[in-house]
Amino acid sequence: MSNALEPISRLMATLAQRAADRPAGSYTTRLLDGGPEKIGGKVLEEARELIEAAGESGDEGRNHFIYEAGDLIYHTLVMLAWRGVDLSEVAQELAKREGVSGLVEKANRPAKDPESEKHSGHES
């Protein structure tokens, strides 16, 4: 599996460099300059496309799903780069959750303030 993750590691290094240098004419630079609103919009768009592709059948559907997963992962990695978060930090977070039931983990999260969610426009 480690060989399968090498392209993602290389991409993260490229994204970190783009975040530092902001080369003109780069799609990644345009996303980074747009901040969380622009990047987040693409993450949401790609998530919707991935969900749609998940329902497609056959080899063509599988290939489309893989393609859309790549897009979603790319845009998520751009958001990490914008935020200055290294993928290893996300891996550490996942390692902390390893062996913990998702239901238990969710139950142990601090309660959200319903008033702040109303004002932010986000509700669970």
From TrEMBL:
<keyword id="KW-0067">ATP-binding</keyword>
<comment type="pathway">
    <text>Amino-acid biosynthesis; L-histidine biosynthesis; L-histidine from 5-phospho-alpha-D-ribose 1-diphosphate: step 2/9.</text>
</comment>
<protein>
    <recommendedName>
        <fullName>Phosphoribosyl-ATP pyrophosphatase</fullName>
        <ecNumber>3.6.1.31</ecNumber>
    </recommendedName>
</protein>
<dbReference type="GO" id="GO:0004636">
    <property type="term" value="F:phosphoribosyl-ATP diphosphatase activity"/>
</dbReference>
<keyword id="KW-0378">Hydrolase</keyword>
<dbReference type="GO" id="GO:0005524">
    <property type="term" value="F:ATP binding"/>
</dbReference>
<dbReference type="InterPro" id="IPR021130">
    <property type="entry name" value="PRib-ATP_PPHydrolase-like"/>
</dbReference>
<feature type="region of interest" description="Disordered">
    <location>
        <begin position="98"/>
        <end position="124"/>
    </location>
</feature>
<keyword id="KW-0028">Amino-acid biosynthesis</keyword>
<keyword id="KW-0368">Histidine biosynthesis</keyword>
<keyword id="KW-0547">Nucleotide-binding</keyword>
<dbReference type="Pfam" id="PF01503">
    <property type="entry name" value="PRA-PH"/>
</dbReference>
<dbReference type="GO" id="GO:0005737">
    <property type="term" value="C:cytoplasm"/>
</dbReference>
<dbReference type="InterPro" id="IPR008179">
    <property type="entry name" value="HisE"/>
</dbReference>
<dbReference type="GO" id="GO:0000105">
    <property type="term" value="P:L-histidine biosynthetic process"/>
</dbReference>
<comment type="similarity">
    <text>Belongs to the PRA-PH family.</text>
</comment>
<feature type="compositionally biased region" description="Basic and acidic residues">
    <location>
        <begin position="106"/>
        <end position="124"/>
    </location>
</feature>
<keyword id="KW-0963">Cytoplasm</keyword>
